[in-house]
Specification:
With about 260 residues, the protein is an alpha/beta fold. The protein has one domain (about 5-185): 2-enoyl-CoA Hydratase, Chain A, domain 1. The chain contains eleven helices and eight strands. The strands form two sheets. It has a six-stranded mixed β-sheet, sandwiched between helices. A two-stranded parallel sheet has the order 5-7. A hairpin with a 4-residue loop joins strand 1 and strand 2 (about 15-20). It is globular and about 55 Å long. Its EC number is 4.2.1.18. It comes from Xenorhabdus cabanillasii JM26. Keywords: Lyase, Membrane, Transmembrane, Transmembrane helix.
Amino acid sequence: MQGIRLEWMTNQIACLTLNKPERGNALNETLMKEFSDYLQQLTSNLNLRALLIQSTGKHFCTGADVHWLKRSLNFSTEENILDARLLEKLLQQLDEFPVPVLMIAKGAVFGGALGLLSCADYVLALEDTRFSFSEALLGLVPAIISPYVVRVIGLRQARRYMLTAEVFDVQQAIELGLVHQQASESNLDELRDNWIKLIQKTAPHASRKIKTMLMRLSVQDGLHNEQQTNIQLMSETRTSSEGQMGLRAFLEKRHPPWS
């Protein structure tokens, strides 16, 4: 089964579906590479007007894949840096995608998945969706996603939610700016289609130029200035004694020493 599935809703509207429901659509190196390759392919399509990103199964994305985390216990610092660069490349591609991007969140949206949401132009979330910056529970740091997330929710709110790793609901996500609108199973398709219709009414070249303009403002805001430091930080925390203890506790389904 493909980790990411590409379909066309029309000849101008593409849909990428996270397609590993048995693993909660969790992120690993294979899925991220596949995701990245599709984004690269779609970026070169000048007829594309919009991109929808959704998921199969119960969850949008539960964060890092358990099997990937297990393998990472034996990664060197250099291997962890390569892993971090995979996620950073994916987030940057999403953030700089040339046409409007809609994401549909549901179930669990944990860890790195919140970085994905922060790079979308519009986010719908089903009413039972739950969110968490869960990294601190594992002795890790949400380093790579932090510039994208802080741009969306602000430093003050990032301090609360990243430091506590608390789970929050759709209403809180809307207040933070991570989600634009709540949906139900009964009106999700209507809300999705309404957004697509709005995009289709806009001038194609103007739409792309607006995205370029907004990206220029993000660059001026220093979004990517700290990413090399963040990549190093992610690698160091994964290989630290605390990070190793946290990952082992999670994989062995027990509480870490600090809990």
